[in-house]
Each structure stands twice: as structure tokens, then as C-alpha cells.
């Protein structure tokens, strides 16, 4: 009896000791910033020792949880089980047309009834979430499919928004004609950015796109004669609805449906694009540039179309954004925005459409519903981003790679596909 | 001429700070190919820790260079500890994941740290105490170069030389170079990769903290947001010089500093960042791997 219980006690003791160490380490780490609060005006210092106690008490149990989750992840037991559970559910839904159509119908009814079921405020939030779904899907073309890391995606969003705002301000152009114009201008900007960066790879591309985004924002901020500087443009018209005079609430509902239709359109197009010749070329380019060129794919054209098509969606959403807020200024187009959109793509699961939708919902609705935490909102947000990535590095929804099934040779063919996918 | 010299030394100071931060980016990138977006926040935490330590120590009656050195030392130790912890919490579990996952984790970490300092301290600008008086021998040239600027340039020079010697000659430095070249092979030869990565983060964070303390001492005020801009600029500098290369980071930092300084002085301060990024794009068009970066041939 004693022989059996001894190792257990020893293990428990070592676990507790480990957590104690971690706890002490974090207390040491947070000591100056949490405990000592400087008041530079009166040259005094407030000591807040209670905070240190709280940190110690919070970290101690959390370190157990962390280690337990890590162990589970390493052994792959829980994680794999979850994956296969998700996969089986996905396959079942896809295989059974009845369940599939039923689910789709329920979703459609819910989505259509949303603005009538919930308040105008909730609808506004949903509009933003849907806008980010579109942005995510657009960036997914560039990052997820073509594998080009773009950290300045917000620039195209700004181009779309400013094209509508300026066209409306100077020429009184309405939302509907501005929508394709804004998207077109964004696409042109995408190609303009694409040319100089064609030779760059990986993280060099990332910093140049980041720089491009910042340049666009700074120009908008400082070129007063063109963009009205930091004060922005106000009084942008709302979308025209057969000349009807809509109230603010009705406008929100109308805009909700515009965005909804645009999202549907985006999903349709992106889905078709992915399985098209150009979509396959993007994926090939992502996997291996040299091999891709050897197969006769024009690298220049493929990359430029990825940039242009990705930018197009940002242009669309930019127009919608200007119409939604009726006021824009450069402060809405900072690098943080690009980072959030990129996070949507990666967090949701790269390359997967449902993943991007889930990612946008999580990242946009999370801060909204975290308002209960008021000032701790962004703290929790940042921490959740880290935690989701640490415990689900492949994203919330894992993209399923399409592959052909050949009757008898299935096993070898699939093996090959799987190898390619894991490479 | 005086105006030119003033801009020159202003650019040199700025560039030195960029170089100090860029070294951390470049070292981390060289070893684990990660853009450590939280690196700018480490710099900010270094500045804050120094401010807090300096305020607390000045209550004890310390002042002058002793205070600066002690506060700086505390800031370096704490920043290194933060760098070490961040690596363990946010990047180490993701070492085998796809390339973009640690990047998102780093962005999340950056948001977290910014708000952590914002909530624990304040969102306002805090005035940073002047820790060193003007040196007497700098009197004749004080209109061109202030003493704090001299301090920045000298410290950067010493740190860079020490770092280069460390990487070239020490056992750990050799292990770092080996890891950067081929991680698997280094592991097979008995190098403790985890320790190498930890040391890289510790050194990089320490250097960022030095930069943070010096620039705060020079400018005189800090807030929780300073790390973000500095981080992006330093990353630009690292890429400009060729990411992964230590002399490249210093060169990139200096070039960026001078570009900004001269653009501000002779053109317009509104467009200094536009010039900085424009230069980056321009150089990368002609040298896609940065100024001192080696372009590697791709193989299938």
C-alpha cells in the first residue's frame, strides 16, 4: 500500500512545487509594473501589494491547468479525438443531403430574420462582423491560397472607403455606382503594389506590404487638399433604395441585407475561384514556387491576380464601411486593423471558408460582448488570441483539402495527396 | 552646416535606437524565423521598468549616473525575464506549427502587453526623470549634439561590439550560429536548441531594454504605446539591412535613422514615415534580401 501511494505523493508534491515556482516567477515578473505606481507630478509612489497577492493566487491554479492542457496536446489524445469528431460531423453533414439542406435552411431563416429579431445595435454589430467576414475571405485569397503574407491589407480597404467618400463628396455619386468603382480602384492598387514586390519572398513581402499600408494611411492623413486630413470626410450618403426615404433603423436593416448579399456573393466567388485553374495555380505557388514555375505557371500573372482579386473585396467592404458610418477618417485604417484581419484568417483556419467566417465572428463579436469587462476587454482579447493559437495552432476549423478518389488505386493516390498536403 | 550636423547626429541617435531594437528582431528571426511582434512591447516595458525603478530608487536618495546604471540594469533584467517568459508561453508550444501561427500569437501577445501596462500604470504620458546631467566637455557642441545623444551612440557601439564578439567567439555564440544555419543538424550535434532560443530572446530583450531606457532618458516622456511604432520601425530596419544579419541590423537602423532625420529636416515632418517606407521598398526592389542579406537559391 505504502509502496503504491509513495510515487503518487511524490508526483503531486513535484507538481505543486512546480506551480509554486511558476507562481513566484510571475510575481517577480509583474512586480514593478503591477505593484509600484508612479505619480510623476507629485513625485510619489503608490504601493499596491494586494495586486501581487492576487497574481500569485491566480497563477498557481492556472499553471496546473496549463500543464494539463499542454500534456493533453502533446499526447495528441484529446486534440486528435476532437479533430476526428469534428471531421466525422462534417462528413456526416456533407454526406446526408437532408441534414445539409435542413441546416442550411435553418441558417438562412435565422440570418434573414436577424435584424427583425434583435435590436438595431445588435444588427450594427452583425454588419461589422459580416464586413470582416468579407475582408477575411478577401485576404484569404492572398494569404491562405497564394501564400503571400500581406500585412497592409487595410490599405485597399482605405482605398475603397475613400473612393466612395470622395466621389460622393465631389460628384455626388451614389453608393451603387461607387461600389464597383471602389473595388476596381482597390484592384488597381493591388496590382500597383504587386509589381515591385514580385521578387520578394516571405517576410520581406510582409514588411513591404506593411509599409505600403502605412504610406497610404499617412498620405491620407497629411494630404489635406485631397483627403481632408485627419478630420476626415463626413456626411457620406447612405445607399439609395429606389428613392425611398428610410429612417435610420430601416437603413441599418437595408445595409444588413446589402452586406449579407455581398457576403453570399463573396463565398460563391471564392469557392469557385478555389477550384478554378487560377485557384489551383495559387495553391501550387504557395506550396512551392520553383516547382510551380517548372509546371508552366506564369508566376507574375498568378501573383498579380492574387493581389488584385484580394484587394477587390477590400474595396467592396471599404465602400460599405463608408456608407455604414457616413464618416471616415484615416484613424480607421491603422496597422492594427490589418493585424486583426490577418488574425481572422489564421485563427479561423487558413484556406477554409467556414474557418474565416468563424474567425471573423469570434474576433469581432468577442470584443463586443466583452464590453462587460470594460477596460479589460483588449487584455482578454490579446490573451485569447495567444491561447487559441497555442492550443489550436492549425486554427479553429481545419481546412479539408480536396482530393480526387480513384476507384481501385485510391490508397496510393490518396497517400500522394496527403503527402503533398502535409509537405 | 550646423543644421546639417544637427540632423546628422539626430539621425545617428535615432538610428542607434532602431539598431538596438532591430538586433533583437534579427537574432530571433535568424534562429526561429519568427517576426516577434511583441519585441516592441519589450522595449516599452524596459522603459517603464526603468522609470519605476528610477522613481523608487530616487526616494532612497540615489541620483546621477549611479541611478541611471542601476535603473538601467533593473530594466534589462526585467525585460530579459519578460522576453524569456513570452517565448516559453507564446512561441515554444508553436514551434512545430505552421509558420503564421506564432505570428498571430505574437500579435496577440503585443496587444496583451500593451493593455497590461495601460491598466497597471496609466494611459497618459509619463515624464521620465532626467538621469544624467549635461556633460561639461560637451558644452561647445551642445547645440549640435546633446549629452544624452552621445550616451546613446556610445552605448549602442559598445553593445554591438560586445554582441559581435559574443556571437563570434563564445561557445553559446557558436551554438547560435549553428542553430541559425540548420536546426536539425545542430540538434544532432548535441546543441540544446531550447536553451539557444531562450538565450537569443534574453539577449535581444536586454538590448531592446537598453534602447528603451536610453531613448526615454533622451526624450523625457513615455507611454504604453511607444513600443508599437518603434517595433515596426526597427523591424523595417532589420529587413532593410538583411534580416538575420547582425551588422545588417545596425546598418539598416542607421540608414533608417538618417533618412527620417533628413526627410524631417529638409522636406516635412509629416512625411518622415513615408520616406522611411519608400526607401525600404526602393532598396528591396534592387536587393530583395536587404543590403547585407544573402539571397539563397531555392530548391524544390
What would you say this structure looks like, in words?
The complex is a heterodimer of chains A (423) and B (300). Chain A contains 17 helices and four strands. Chain A is an all-alpha fold and 423 residues long. Chain A has two domains: 58 residues; 267 residues, ABC transporter involved in vitamin B12 uptake, BtuC. A two-stranded antiparallel ribbon of chain A has the order 1-2. In chain A, strands 3-4 form a two-stranded antiparallel sheet. In chain A, strand 1 and strand 2 form a beta hairpin. Chain B has one domain: Orthogonal Bundle (ABC transporter involved in vitamin B12 uptake, BtuC), CATH 1.10.3470. Chain B has a two-stranded antiparallel sheet with strand order 1-2. The longest helix of chain B is centred in the first third of the chain and has 31 residues. Chain B is globular and about 60 Å long.
Please summarize what this structure is:
The complex is a heterodimer of chains A (423) and B (300). With 423 residues, chain A is mainly alpha-helical. Chain A has 17 helices and four strands.
Blueprint (SSEs and pairs):
The complex is a heterodimer of chains A (423) and B (300).
Chain A: H1 2-35, E1 36-39, E2 44-47, H2 49-75, H3 77-95, H4 97-117, H5 120-145, H6 154-171, H7 175-194, H8 202-222, H9 224-227, E3 233-234, H10 248-274, H11 277-287, H12 289-294, H13 299-325, E4 327-328, H14 335-348, H15 353-369, H16 377-391, H17 410-422
Antiparallel strand pairs in A: 1-2, 3-4
Helix pairs in contact in A: 1-2, 4-10, 5-10, 5-13, 5-14, 5-15, 6-7, 6-8, 6-13, 7-13, 10-13, 11-13, 14-15
Chain B: H1 2-32, H2 39-59, H3 65-91, H4 100-120, E1 126-127, H5 147-169, H6 171-181, H7 183-188, H8 193-219, E2 221-222, H9 226-241, H10 246-266, H11 272-286
Antiparallel strand pairs in B: 1-2
Helix pairs in contact in B: 1-5, 1-8, 1-9, 1-10, 2-3, 2-4, 2-8, 2-9, 3-8, 5-6, 5-8, 6-8, 9-10, 9-11, 10-11
Amino acid at each position: 500500500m505504502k509502496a503504491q501511494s509513495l510515487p503518487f505523493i511524490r508526483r503531486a508534491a513535484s507538481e505543486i512545487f512546480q506551480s509554486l515556482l511558476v507562481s513566484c516567477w510571475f510575481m517577480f515578473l509583474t512586480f514593478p509594473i503591477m505593484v509600484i505606481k508612479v505619480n510623476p507630478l507629485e513625485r510619489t509612489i503608490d504601493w499596491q501589494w494586494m495586486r501581487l497577492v492576487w497574481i500569485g493566487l491566480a497563477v498557481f491554479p492556472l499553471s496546473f491547468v496549463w500543464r494539463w492542457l499542454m500534456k493533453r496536446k502533446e499526447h495528441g489524445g484529446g486534440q486528435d479525438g476532437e479533430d476526428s469528431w469534428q471531421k466525422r460531423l462534417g462528413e456526416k453533414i456533407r454526406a446526408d443531403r437532408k441534414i445539409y439542406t435542413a441546416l442550411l435552411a435553418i441558417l438562412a431563416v435565422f440570418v434573414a430574420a436577424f435584424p427583425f429579431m434583435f435590436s438595431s445595435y445588435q444588427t450594427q454589430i452583425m454588419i461589422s462582423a459580416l464586413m470582416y467576414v468579407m475582408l477575411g475571405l478577401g485576404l484569404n485569397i492572398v494569404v491562405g491560397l497564394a501564400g503571400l503574407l500581406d500585412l497592409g491589407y487595410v490599405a485597399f480597404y482605405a482605398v475603397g472607403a475613400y473612393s466612395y467618400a470622395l466621389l460622393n463628396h465631389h460628384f455626388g455619386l451614389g453608393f451603387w455606382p461607387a461600389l464597383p468603382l471602389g473595388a476596381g480602384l482597390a484592384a488597381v492598387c493591388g496590382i500597383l503594389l504587386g509589381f515591385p514586390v514580385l521578387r520578394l519572398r516571405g517576410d520581406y513581402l510582409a514588411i513591404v506590404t506593411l509599409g505600403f499600408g502605412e504610406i497610404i494611411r499617412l498620405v491620407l492623413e497629411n494630404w489635406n487638399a485631397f483627403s481632408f486630413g485627419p478630420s476626415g470626410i463626413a456626411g457620406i450618403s447612405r445607399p439609395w433604395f429606389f428613392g425611398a426615404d428610410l429612417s435610420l433603423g430601416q437603413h441599418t436593416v437595408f445595409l444588413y441585407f446589402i452586406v449579407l448579399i455581398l457576403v453570399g456573393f463573396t463565398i460563391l466567388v471564392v469557392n469557385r475561384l478555389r477550384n478554378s485553374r487560377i485557384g489551383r495555380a495559387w495553391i501550387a505557388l504557395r506550396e512551392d514556387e520553383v516547382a510551380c514555375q517548372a509546371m508552366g505557371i506564369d508566376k507574375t500573372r498568378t501573383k498579380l491576380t492574387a493581389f488584385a482579386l484580394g484587394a477587390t473585396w477590400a474595396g467592396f467592404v471599404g465602400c460599405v464601411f463608408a456608407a455604414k458610418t457616413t464618416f471616415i477618417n484615416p484613424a480607421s485604417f491603422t496597422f492594427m486593423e490589418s493585424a486583426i484581419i490577418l488574425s481572422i484568417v489564421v485563427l479561423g483556419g487558413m484556406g477554409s471558408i467556414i474557418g474565416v467566417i468563424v474567425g471573423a465572428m469570434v474576433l469581432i463579436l468577442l470584443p463586443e460582448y466583452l464590453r462587460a469587462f470594460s477596460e479589460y476587454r483588449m487584455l482578454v482579447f490579446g490573451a485569447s488570441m495567444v491561447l487559441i493559437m497555442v492550443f489550436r495552432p492549425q486554427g479553429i476549423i481545419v481546412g479539408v483539402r480536396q482530393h480526387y478518389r480513384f476507384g481501385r488505386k485510391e490508397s496510393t493516390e490518396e497517400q500522394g495527396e496527403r503527402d503533398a498536403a502535409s509537405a | 552646416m550646423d543644421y546639417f550636423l544637427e540632423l546628422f547626429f539626430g539621425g545617428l541617435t535615432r538610428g542607434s535606437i532602431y539598431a538596438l531594437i532591430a538586433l533583437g528582431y534579427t537574432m530571433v528571426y535568424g534562429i526561429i524565423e519568427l517576426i516577434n511582434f511583441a519585441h516592441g512591447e519589450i522595449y516599452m516595458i524596459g522603459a517603464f521598468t526603468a522609470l519605476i525603478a528610477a522613481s523608487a530608487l530616487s526616494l532612497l536618495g540615489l541620483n546621477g549616473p549611479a541611478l541611471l546604471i542601476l535603473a538601467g540594469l533593473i530594466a534589462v533584467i526585467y525585460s530579459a525575464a519578460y522576453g524569456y517568459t513570452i517565448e516559453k508561453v507564446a512561441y515554444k508550444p508553436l514551434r512545430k506549427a505552421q509558420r503564421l501561427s506564432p505570428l498571430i500569437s505574437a500579435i496577440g501577445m503585443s496587444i496583451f502587453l500593451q493593455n497590461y501596462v495601460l491598466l497597471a500604470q496609466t494611459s497618459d504620458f509619463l515624464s521620465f526623470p532626467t538621469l544624467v546631467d549635461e556633460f561639461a566637455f560637451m558644452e561647445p557642441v551642445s547645440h549640435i549634439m546633446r549629452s544624452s545623444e552621445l550616451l546613446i551612440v556610445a552605448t549602442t557601439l559598445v553593445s554591438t561590439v560586445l554582441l559581435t564578439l559574443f556571437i563570434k567567439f563564445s561557445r553559446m555564440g557558436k551554438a547560435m550560429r549553428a542553430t541559425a544555419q540548420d536546426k536539425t543538424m545542430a540538434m544532432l550535434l548535441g546543441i540544446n536548441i531550447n536553451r539557444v532560443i531562450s538565450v537569443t530572446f534574453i539577449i535581444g530583450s536586454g538590448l531592446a531594454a537598453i534602447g528603451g531606457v536610453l531613448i526615454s532618458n533622451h526624450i523625457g516622456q513615455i507611454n504604453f504605446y511607444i513600443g508599437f511604432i518603434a517595433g515596426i520601425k526597427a523591424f523595417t530596419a532589420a529587413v532593410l539591412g538583411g534580416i538575420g544579419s547582425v551588422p545588417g541590423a545596425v546598418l539598416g537602423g542607421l540608414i533608417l535613422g538618417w533618412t527620417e532625420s533628413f526627410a524631417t529636416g529638409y522636406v516635412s515632418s509629416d512625411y518622415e514615415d513615408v520616406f522611411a517606407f519608400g526607401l525600404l521598398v526602393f532598396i528591396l526592389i534592387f536587393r530583395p534580401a536587404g543590403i547585407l542579406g544573402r539571397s539563397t537559391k531555392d530548391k524544390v
